[in-house]
Model the fold of this input.
Amino acid sequence: MKHFLEYFPLLAFFISYYLFDVYTATAVLIGASVLQLILLQILFKKIPRQNWVVFAVVTLFGALTLYFHDDNFIKLKPSIIYGIFALVLLGYQFIGQSIPKKFMGKEIDAPDAVWRNLTFGWAFTCAFAGVLNFWIAFNLPLDTWVNFKVFGLTILTFVMFICSGVYLYKYMPNDDDAQQQK
Done:
């Protein structure tokens, strides 16, 4: 359910864009983001920080898009979000904390160098996604950008997580270890 909630605003934006236009889709995106936060609070009793960051950027750039009737603002949103994520990943690593290790370190016992490399990989992927989004948004047609935003960035995120799993595979506990811990 939580995974569906993560992609719910994006799906709502995509459907609204193809049924109406980018401005209606932007308004729907803002509304879906509000609903996402409400449902996260009701169902999980907690709204992760990343959802607050995304909500703030969606609301700000969505409002600017609607107020100025200029889709360039909403096109910037993914680049800004990915830029923030890259900076946060690097910032935490700089102070000696690995965000991937915070997420997976209890289940996977990997050396600090592996977590550091994974952090840099995630940060690079976020920076690459932000730059690629910017280039596509301002060099290709709006339909191309919407499809890239929905499918391209989603696929890039999944590829990043698959690569992370492959990279961490040798450090994952095997079934025998998991049984012994019970």
